[in-house]
Amino acid sequence: MSSTLKSIYNRSTSFFTPTASSTDLSLTPSTEFTKATNGTNLFPKVDPAVDGPDCDHDCESCTVKYPAKWSIDEEEQLYGQVNGWATHLLVATGKSDWVRDVADEKGSVMEAFGKADVKPTNGNLMLSASNMPPPSAYYEAEPGHCPTTVLLLPAFVLIDNVIPADVPDLTTHIINPAPTNTTPLHITSSTTRPEHLARAMTSPSFLPKPSNVPTEPSQQTPNDAAAAALTLNDPTTLTLTDPSTLSIPPPPPTHLTTRPCPHKYLILLCSQKTRDARCGQSAPLLRREFERHLRPLNLYRDLGDERPNGVGIYFISHVGGHKYAANVMVYRKGSNGEASQGIWLARVRPEDCEGIVRFTVLKGKVVKPERQLRGGFDRERGVVSW
Fold first, then answer.
1. What is the radius of gyration, based on Cα positions, of the chain?
2. End-to-end CA distance of the chain
3. How far apart are CA 336 and CA 227, in angstroms?
């Protein structure tokens, strides 16, 4: 590719190409993520010499217990067996259990995603129903028109007033331009950070300027970029596109509003008993124990508590691997307001909660990687498990 085409490509991709994901990393060799061959290469394991002699011990004060006949798979290797995901969307439903396949929830945003013709272009979207509280209008509207809130990760962005019919616009204007789990933190554009995401999608600089308005030499409009845009039709092929065939999408509907998620950390617990009774049993017990350890630190946030910098704990729908219950996903916000790490654990018991709070949530370390770590990502270091 000539230097001129490279310059054109670099200028135009901010408008027309998806963020790098696990499937298109070859296009950005300077920021390529690598696969961690084992759990300790992905996240550091606690070290008694650094973290204290009891860092790898079970909590001795824990009184919460699983049912006497609790039985899960303890033999299979966990690490590296999960499929990679680029973004994660939590849909507020106010419930902790759902129909077996949440895409079959009639009139729901989850169903709309399952049926939508418009799909994410920046990698695999993990879609979860959650017990996040929806607004009061959710319970008052007609079925299929209930406005709710969704949380987009790793962007840590809340989108309000979403109804099923909004899914194509939500995907096109908010999910597709958002950072993914394989967007390096140090190159994330300010326009994709939580406090700027909505503003960037509706700002005048994103929309075409009238032809009679002169453009300053130092600025480039989207139409200028379109004139020489490179469309990534195939992850391995760059194709010069005829500018007459390109169109700038309009801004998202004005009723879709975004705001930064106030939590600094998230703990997500699979609670879907219609998939497996063990998930329905373990989630409330773990939540109680996590709360016990977070309250003294003034970090616990109840549902609807949006004080900044705390830990939000949410029940979510099936994530796979219920035979390894309990599944726990931890997202840790970085300095730029987005998730810097996503840590997926399994075989979690109540006596593990203290260590998970002290070291996994607060420090990004894993206490029992050999037994509990399924996978995840670290955007600061550029490593993933897939």
1. 22
2. 30
3. 32
Residue 274 to residue 277: CA distance in whole angstroms: 7
- Asked whether 114 and 103 are in contact (CB, 8 A), the reply is yes
By DSSP bridging, strand 265-270 and strand 311-316 are parallel
Tell me the pLDDT tens digit for each residue of 216-241.
444 444 444 333 332 333 333 333 33
d(CA 114, CA 105): 10
Its pTM stands at 0.79
pLDDT(131) > 80? yes
Residue reference for tokens 């616009």? 169
In the numeric block, the tokens 């497996």 are attached to 276
CA distance linking residue 299 with residue 293, whole number of Å: 9
Cα–Cα distance, 163 to 354 (Å, whole number): 38
- Report the candidate in 328, 386, 385 with the shortest Cα–Cα distance to residue 41: 385
Q: Which range (154-158, 180-184, 240-244, 308-312) has the least confidence? A: 240-244
Label each residue of the chain as H, E or C: CCHHHHHHHHHHHHHHCCCCCCCCHHHCHHHCCEECCCHHHHCCECCHHHHCCCCCCCCCCCCCCCCCCCCCCCCCCCCCCCCCCCEEEEEECCCCCCCCCHHHCCCCHHHHHHHCCCCCCCCCEEEEEECCCCCCHHHHCCCCCCCEEEEEECCCEEEEEECHHHHHHHHHHHHCCCCCCCCCHHHCCHHHCCCCHHHHHHCHHHCCCCCCCCCCCCCCCHHHHHHCCEEEEECCEEEECCHHHCCCCCCCCCCCEEEECCCCEEEEEECCCCCCHHHHHHHHHHHHHHHHHHHHHCCEECCCCCCCCCEEEEEECCCCCHHHCCCEEEEEECCCCCEEEEEEECCCCHHHHHHHHHHHHHHCCECCHHHHEEEEEECCCCEECC
Q: How far apart are CA 9 and CA 229, in angstroms?
A: 7
